[in-house]
Design goal:
The chain is mostly helical. It contains eight helices and no strands. It is flat, with a radius of gyration of 19 Å.
Length: 170
């Protein structure tokens, strides 16, 4: 799925945005290097605090949501053939914007498997989660534009969903 996304994503974005060369030529903001150790430490801890304030609530919400999913969704529902298709699409849809710490998706995937989730849904989650997330898409949109970020998100979602559905059919 990763190789398909790399080649397909680059090809699709290049084909859709070949004439818009101004996208990557924006002025960059000039950053000033901190003068001393105290200013460097202050800038570092200020940035760290800002990052914690932005990410910790989303991580807590993600952990609580996954725990509730594993605890209260009946295992038979996740394993039913009618739900398998929906589970793959939902897993890809949730994983694309979700920002998880590195390797945090592995325990979640194991929890989904133990709750009876289809292998295809877990594979879609394990691929799309590390591939892209909302903060990365917002940074890309800021550097280029929202259309390129949306196309990249759509490519990652499509490959994750397709790969998951293929795995479910095996």
């Amino acid at each position: 799925m990763a190789a398909v996304t790399v080649f397909l994503g680059g090809f699709v974005i290049e084909r859709l945005f070949t004439r818009d060369t101004s996208l990557f030529n924006r002025k960059r903001t000039e950053y000033r290097t901190p003068a001393g150790l105290q200013e460097t430490a202050s800038a570092f801890f200020g940035s760290l605090l800002d990052m914690l304030i932005r990410t910790v609530p989303a991580l807590v919400l993600g952990v609580v949501s996954s725990m509730l999913l594993i605890q209260y969704v009946p295992p038979g529902l996740l394993a039913s053939s009618g739900f398998r298709f929906f589970a793959v699409l939902a897993a890809a849809s949730i994983a694309v914007p979700l920002a998880l710490p590195t390797f945090f998706e592995v325990p979640l995937a194991l929890g989904f498997l133990s709750a009876g989730a289809p292998v295809g849904a877990v594979a879609a989650f394990l691929f799309a989660g590390p591939a892209i997330n909302l903060p990365s898409l917002l940074a890309l949109a800021r550097s280029t534009n929202w259309r390129i970020a949306a196309v990249l998100a759509a490519v990652v979602w499509t490959v994750a969903a397709t790969g998951g559905l293929i795995l479910n059919s095996l």
